[in-house]
Structures are given as structure tokens and as C-alpha cells.
Protein: Branched-chain amino acid ABC transporter substrate-binding protein
Amino acid sequence: MRQRSTLILTAVLTTGALTLTACGSRDSKDSGSGSSGSGGNTTVTIGVDAPLTGQNSATGLGLQYGVQIAADQANAKKTVPGVTFKVKALDDKALPATGQQNATQLVADKTVIATVGPLNSGVATNMQQVFDSANMVEISPANTAPELTQGKNWQTGKKVRPFKTYFRTATTDALQGGFAAQYASENLKKKKAFVVDDKQTYGSGLAKLFKQNFLKDGGKVVGEDHVNTGDKDFSTLVTKIKNSGADILYYGGQYDESQLITKQLKDVGAKIPLMGGDGMFSDTYIKTAGKESEGDLATSVGAPLDTEPAAKDFIATYKSKKYPGDYSTYGGYSFDAASAIINAVGKIAKDGKLPSDARQQLITAVQDSDFQGIAGPVKFDQYGDTANKQLTVYQVTNGKWKAVKSGTFNG
Structure:
């Protein structure tokens, strides 16, 4: 996933100059400052950045509490002897500038060892340099824009990793867009697509990849258009789509707009499905669009979390704690991202203490991750991308998202 772009970065370079001497707060027996957490000599903080209020907050909160559950379990099980984990969650409101400010705040906190997030790819573009300059690991459970790990020329085959500190547990739009197009062509037998995007990093990139693959599969794109995030009235757009003769609408963006587009589209008599990416895979989409969402489709990363045996305890904990938000989209990937950080801390900690260059050492330790997470295997390639390429198509059936195809896309 996800959205909003502005490129980078002015004041952050000062922050990048920070070379912190320690990333944990030690108890009174140690020479460092700070207080100990219960059951350990060193308290280590995992930062979280996501939209916790407003736009995309349902999925953002799912991300936050996925990390919280991982930290709580690590503390209960004493996964890293002598180390207690805390979570510091900051709200970026899905705004790149706010994400950049949050990144600056997190790297300035000497207890923060690494960060999970953000949700939106456009926000990530404003955060990556901040974390890289401070040698702080950042693992996103949701970003899907390919250029974040493979550079701006990735489509030409010239893949270059821009930042050594950036990783993700979600697979990329390079696969998701093609997977959606293949399903639309082969399974739904659609021939004429109208393609719309929200002009943001995530949405426009995903729409472009769907279009390329739909054409490659023999389909025809009968129209294209763009909307602005925050728009509410799509009357002109839906009339254009209806008159185009399209048998499917593909939308690159998030549920905030797509849930209104599909409703207004059906209201003018265009009874065609709207298909999108993980940005619209949320129960909020169905609640807002109502019965007009029936038959609509979304792709999302991974297999359905409730079909993963390893996720059973996670889901039970999330529900029993009555945490807000939606765990099903990125909660599992957030848990796995936090687990990668926790496991890496275990590799570099000795007798409950962290080395003075803990952030630097953590980069290599995370890169070497190789374990089975609750949402799939956790292993990173030379670009920081996940080895888990699983994707799923969901369709609204009787008012609920139902998985209709799960697999991988090889082009």
C-alpha cells in the first residue's frame, strides 16, 4: 500500500548526523540513563508510524496493535533475556510531511532501536532518508511501491536499492497489479477496463501496472481518469465510465474514494464491478458503500490471515484485547515486522545489554532474518523485499470480503 508523495528532504539531514551511543535505556546498575522495564535490565522501544486517526485509521490501528502484541508476547516469553520491549506509536495522518516529522522524532529518541511503518508508500518516500542517515531499521508491513526498494528505474531492469535500512514484509505492486489483471482477464473474463487512480504514489503506480498487464493479457482499456484524494462527488466520472462500455472499473487508490465511486457508479445504472488493491481492502469499504459494493474485488498481500494456523493466537489476542482497527489487512505483517526486530535485538544483545552501535548492528541482523512468521516466511532479499510473494483476490459476497483466489504472480 499506499499513498502520497513529495520528495525528500531538507531538515532531516541534521537528524541524520545523530550517531546515538545507545538504543536502550538502562537501569541504575548501568552507566546509561533511563529506567529499566519490568523483567529486564534494558528497555528497548520499537517505533510505529501509521495513520492512527482520520484517513486510513482502521488499517493504521491494525498495524499499531500488531506490533503491540508482538512486543507483549516477547516480554511475556522473555524472548530476549534482560530486554523489555516498549512501543512508541506516532500518527502520521497519511501525510508525508507528518511522517517525516515523526521519523525525525523517533531517531532522536535514544531508546528507539527500529521502526515499523509506515502504511502509505508516499509517506515512506519522506521517511526513508531520515532513518537511513541515522542507521535505523525501518520495516513496513504495508508499502507496496516497487521503487522504495528497487529504485526509480526498476521497470527498466536497473534495480538499485536506495536505502540499506529499509525493509518490508509486504510484497510489491509489481506483482499485485499483474495478479489483479490476470484474475480480471482469466477468471472474470473481462475484456474492457476503465482505469482510474488518485494521482498518489501507491494508486497511480498500481493502476499503471494493472493497465500494462491487462493489455498484455488481451484486454482493452476503454478509458482512463484521475481523482483527487478527499473528493466526494464523482458524478462526472461515473457518467464517463458508464458511457465507455467498460465491463470492469479498476481503481488505483484507497477505500476513502473507491467506496463512494462504486456507490455512485451503481446509482447511475452501471452494474459493473470495481476492482482495486490492498488500499481498499477494508471492512469500512463495505460499510460505506453498502449493498452497492456487492461483487466488487480487491487484491491484498499474503494469504487470508485467518487461514494461517500460526496466526490463531494472534487473532485471539487481538479480539480479546478489543483493540480497535482492522487486524486482517496488515496486522499479521506488522506482527512479523516487529518479530524480525525483536529477533535481531536478540542476536546483538549480550546479557541484557546492547552494544553502543546497536542501530548499526541491527541492520545486518534484520537483513539476515529467516524464520516462519504468522503471515508467512520472513526473509529479505538483497533489496530488502520480502520472500513472501503470496497474494489473494477478495470479493464482496453477502456483505463480507471472501477470498476467491490465493497464489503468486510470475508474469
Remarks:
- The CA atoms of residues 226 and 309 lie 40 Å apart.
- The chain is about 40% helix and 20% strand.
